Amino acid sequence: MRELKLVLTILLAAAALCVLIIAVFWRALLTPEQKLRYGLTFAAAEGFARRARAHPDNARFLNDYADALAREGNLGRAAYLHGLYGAQCPTYGALKEVISHSLEAAGRGEVDVVTKDPAAQALKDEPVYQALKYLEGYRHALLGDWTSAKTLLSGIEERELAPPLRPYFRYYLARSYRKAGTPRERSRVVRLLNSVIKDSDDLGLRARAHYNLLAWYLSPDYPGGGGLDRAREQRVTLSLLPAGWPMQKAYTELGAVYLKLGKLRDAWNLAAQAVMLGPEDPPGKAAGELCLDVLTQAVPAAQGGQGSAPPSSSAALEYPPGLFTALARAGEKHGFAARVAAVLGKLPNPPSVELNEELRVALAVCYRANGNAKALLALMADANLRGMSDSALARMYFEYAQLLEAQGRISEALGYYRSSGKLGGPAAWRGGGGEAYYRCYALLKRTQQPLDLTAAVALLKSVVDAQRTSESYPKAVEELLPILIYRGDRDAARKLAQYVVDNEAALAAGGSYGVEGAGQLAAVGRFWLTYLGGSLSDAAKVRGNADRFHCRYWSYYELAGGGDTQPGLAAFPLAVSLPETASEYFAGLGLGTTADDFYEGNGASDDPVLMYMSLANSAATKPLSSRQWEATELLESGRIHERALLEHVLAEAYPRPYAEDVRRAAGQYGVPAALIYAVMKKESSFKEDSTSPAGAQGLMQLMPGTVRWLISNYGAPPDSLARLREPSVNISLGAAYLRSLFAQVGQSDPLRAGDAQLRTVILSYNSGPGNYRAWAQRYSGADAALLTELIPNEENEEFGKKVWKYWRVYSMLQEP
Question: Could you tell me the pTM of the whole model?
C-alpha cells in the first residue's frame, strides 16, 4: 500500500510538472499554422521565416511567410517578397489598393480614412488593422490636426500592434497628448516618452523622445515644477547620444530660454554647439540665428568694431574653433549671410591668431555669398597688410575667385584661383588643397579655344600630386588620363591608372569622396588600362541581358570597359534573414515622411525592402520622369546585392514608355530602338512638354530649325513643326534625325554601326555635326572614345557619355 501511494505521488508530480511545462512552453510546441489559427500572428511569422530560410527552394514556405507578414502589419516586406519573388500573399493583395489610394490622397494633402475601407474592415481581428489605425493617426499628426490624431491613436490596442511599431505609437501618442490633450492626458506625456526611451532600440527615436521631453519641460503648458532643471538633465543625456537634429534643436531651444533669462554665456555655449553640429541641416538655421542674437546683445556695436577689446562683463564669450566657419555656412545655406557678415564684422578681435583668421575667412564666405565684391576685396587687402597666413589668404582668394567666376570675369578669376593654389589652396572644408587648381583647369577647358594642353596637364598634375584625399582628386584623374594618352605620354597614363586601381581601398578609406567615389575612380583606371592594352571591345556588337554584366555602379567607364565584376548577387531574398524594422512597416503603410528618414540612412539604407519600397511608393505620387531618376540613383549607388532587386531597379531606371511609337519609328528609319530611348532619357526624362532654354522641344528635344530641315530634306510631314510636341511625331522626327546623322558618317545601316560611328552620331545629335567636325579636326588622331573625353564643353561631354551609357544598358535589356 505504501509503495502504491508513492507511485501515485510520483505520477501526480510528474503530471503536474508536465502541465507546468506545457503551460510555459505550449507556444513553442505549436506549428506556425497553429499559431496563426490561435491569433499568435507575430510568433507565427517568426516560425514561417525560419521555415523559409531552411527551405529556400520551397515557394509555399515563402508564400506563408509573406502572408503572415501582411497580417502582422509589415506590408513593406510582404510587398517586397510579392513584387520581386512572386510570393502569393492574399492579405497584401487585398490591401494593396487601400495603401495606394492612401498614398495618392496624402500627395494631395488629404487624409484618407483607410480603416473604413471594406478590405481593411475584413481584417479587423488582425494586427495589421492596428497598423492601419496608426497610419491614420500619423497622417493627421503630419497635417497638424492633433485632436484627430489623438482620437485615432488613443483607440489603438498596443498589445495587438506589431512590436517594432509600439515605441513609435507611444511617441506620437505622447505628442498628441501634449498638443491637444486634457490635463489628465498631459500628465501622461512624461511617462510615455520615458517608456519610449527605455524600450526602443532605435537611438534616433530615443533622441527624439529626449528632445520632446526637453521641449515639454520648457513649455508654459508643462504642469509640473522645475521644468528648466529637468530640461537641463535631458540636454546632458542627449549629449551622450549620436542624436543629430534632436540635439541641435534641444540646444537651440534651451539656449533661447537662457537668452530670455539674460544668461548670455549659457545661451552662447548652447547656440555655438548647436550650429556646429550641422550648420547646413534644417535646424542649423535657428541655431545660427540664435548665435547672432546672442552676439548682438553681448557685443553691441557701441562697444566698437574690429580691433576693440573684448567686453569685460561676465557675458564675455569664448569662440570655439570652427564656429565662425559654421556660422558662415549656415548663413550661406539658409539665406542670412548678410546678417552673419554684419554681426561678425562688428566683433572685437578674437584672442588668438587662428581664430582671427577664421573670422575673416568666414566674412569672405559671406561676402561671396552676397556677391559683395567690394567688401571682399577690401577684406583681402586688410589681410595682406596684417600679414595673415598663406592658408587664410588662399581661402580668401578662393572665395573671391568664385565670386568673379559667377560674375563672368573669367581672366580675373583664373588669376585668383592660381594665387590660391600657389598659397596652398582652400582648406579641407571647401574641398581640399587641389580644388583651386582644378577650378582653374575647369575654367580653362570651358573658355580657352583651343585648350593649352601643356598648361592643362600642369594644373591637373598639381591637383593629383597635391592631395589625394580631396574631392577634386577623382575628377582630376579622370580629366588627366585622356590628355596624357592623346599627347603620347602613355607610360605616365598607365602608371596613374594602375595606381587608382591598385589602391582603391586606401583611397576609399582616406578620401573625402568615400567608397563610391574610389570605386568609380577604379573603374576609370580599368577602362584606360584596357584602352592602352588595345583590348577594348567593339561595344556596338554587345547584346544579351544583364546577366552578362555585374556592374557595381553601372557607370559609363564600367560599361565602356566591358563591365566590372562585383561579388555574386543573391538569388534568395536577403530580407528573410534580417530582423524586421519599424521602417519596413512605415514604408509598407506608405508613410513617406517617416520612411524617407530610413531611405536616406539611419543605418538602414542598405535594407533591400526599403530600396524596393522607396520606388514602389513613389509610383503612386510621382511622374515617370522623377521615378526613373530615383531608380537610376539607386542603381548607381553600388548598394544592390540581390539579382531580383537589380532586375527590378534596372527596369525602373530604364523604362520603355511609348513602346509602339518607338517600335514604329525605329522600323521606319532603321535605327536602334535602344538609341531612341537613350536619347529620350537624357534629353527630356520622358517629359512630353519639355522645352530647353535654347528652344528644343519634346521627348527628343528637337530644335525648330532641325525640324524644318527634316521637312525639306528628309521627307518629314509638312505639319511636323505644328505637331512637334506630340509624342509620336517627336519620336519619329528624332529617329529621322538620327538616321540622317548615321548617313553623314557613311553608315547606311545604323543597326550595324561600330562604336566610333555610334559615338559620332551621339555627339553630333547634341552639338550639331559642324561642332563635332571642328572638335575632330582640333584633336586629329584621337579616336571617338578619346575624343569624347577631350570635348571642351562639359555639357556636350556629359551628353556623349550618358547617352552612350544609356544606349548600352537599353541594348542589354531589350529582347535578344
Answer: 0.88
